[in-house]
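PT: before anyone asks, these are the final sequences, not the draft ones from last week. 441 residues across everything. Please model them as a single complex and drop the result in this thread when it's through.
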Amino acid sequence: MSKKADTRELVESASQPSADMAGAPEDFFKMHLTQLRRAMSHSPLEDHVRLILSEPKNEVIVNFPVRMDTGKFELFTGYRIQHNNVMGPYKGGMRFHHDVTLPEVKALAALMTYKCALLEVPFGGAKGGIRMRPREYSRTEMERITRRFTHDLGNNIGPEYDIPAPDMGTNSQVMVWMMDTYMNMHGANDKNAQRRIVTGKTLASGGSRGRGKATGQGVVYCIQEWADEKGFRLDGSSFTLQGFGNVGSHTAQILSRLGSILTAVQDHTGTIHNPQGIYPRKLIDWVEETGGVAGYPGAEEISNEDYWKVECDICIPAALELQIDEKVAKDLQCRVVVEAANGPTTLAGEEVLLERGIEVIPDIMANAGGVVVSYFEWIQNKRSESWQLQEVDSRLHFMMKRAYHEMRGFAREHKVDNRSASLAVALDRINKVYVERGVFP
Ligand code: NAD
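LR: through. Structure below.
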């Protein structure tokens, strides 16, 4: 059977039991298709919509050479996967990481389609990236890699067509290099109209206030809604974080201002623990100075395995996918898992969590703050406006809250878990548009 037929079948067979994936070696894209299939059984779709969503619309792969500081050349592989644009231009992050693979980027692109639909952001879904270890390259090498990648993507991206943003291993500086390269590839007299080719830029170069912290802010808005619903006091509660980059560090700062105490952090350099609390601001300074959380003087180091056993109220994975598997799910001692990262929980892991009564706030809901404020940045660039932080935050709050309650309302009404509910709400919106518009020709 061809690979295409295989993935389509996974999505099409919504009525089949889903246990087939549980326990199998987890492949992120296949895992996503299984989650989708479960959601589809609660949100009936037209057959053609099912088919369309089973594969990305476009898969762009570029191999390009870049001169290193030594004068030698390296060849890089870059991806841009455009999953669906029925709701608006393709939108999604660019990831620079050594684990970037085609199936991973396909899954991440699909998640963007559903995230935007759930939040009613008028964008479709895309994702891209380069398979590389960004920490091993100098700033000048990073700039050349980014610029050459942007150049080689050519018109496969565009301000009304496909709009990249930061993700793991990329930041506002990388976005500004992408923007500048794209602007220079286009006519001198409409250069500025191209600024919204990327979002997540620095404020000085056309970014939005509040974009840096947006994903973390959105994570915290979700936690507040969850706490309100459960009658749970955040003041005096505890949380742990895997990942202390953009999303993790902002989540830590904002959540700790509500009185919640950060007790353990894991990143690529190690795991630290302090039951009395870790100051997020001090840890940010330490990470900026040393490159990671390891060795932070205000906490003791524990093993990476022990991280998942640390007792807490809120467990926040904010790094990689497929982290909470069956074993980790059995170890976790928390009330709720809030997926700040994309795809951090495996199918088997989620089954265990739900059996144990640990709630999961799924990725497309929990980390949607980033794309919401990216949308605000795009609008501001388009209208030559500059919004105040208060306006950004209050609009973000409104959209996160609305989507959260739509997800919870669906989950209660249909007696399903939050992941199926969030995907089902999104699928229903996409299905309606396809039914109204039909399929060309
Ligand atoms: P980042 O590059 O700023 O930070 C990544 C963090 O993960 C770092 O602290 C790094 O040390 C840690 N990490 C890497 N490998 C690890 C490992 N093996 N074990 C433990 N920790 C490890 O990335 P980010 O932008 O914060 O993104 C984190 C997650 O959030 C990703 O899943 C991303 O897709 C998702 N996300 C990001 C945004 C955004 O706006 N940046 C929006 C939505 C979702």
